[in-house]
Amino acid sequence: MNEWIVPIKYGDLPEDHRPKARLMVMINEMGEVISTQWNKHSGDPSFDSSCIRAVQCASPFDTPSKKLKWKAHKEGFLIEFDPGLKS
Fold it and tell me: What is the pLDDT of residue 18?
């Protein structure tokens, strides 16, 4: 969330008008992003680009625990991007 720069035009929109996106992120045992896959696009290319950029800038993430290594690499983690969560 610290790396996400929300496009300014979404800053003051009411919740029912805010774009939202979900991104599945796979990381390796070192916490580096190895792939991303959209679970839900926002419908706005600039918003979606800001989501991808945030994930790329946040890499590497904390290394996953032994229990989560397989899941982190093979299934990934779902990250939701909602401008309301940033405020």
Answer: 85
Give the pTM: 0.82
> Would you say 85 and 51 are in contact if contact means Cβ atoms under 8 Å apart?
no
51-81: pLDDT as tens digits: 999 999 999 988 988 888 888 888 899 999 9
Closest C-alpha among 29, 24, 25 to residue 69: 29
Q: Going from the N-terminus, what domains does the chain have, and what CATH number goes with each?
A: 8-86 (3.30.1150.10)
Order across the sheet with 33-40: list the strands: 33-40, 21-27, 77-81
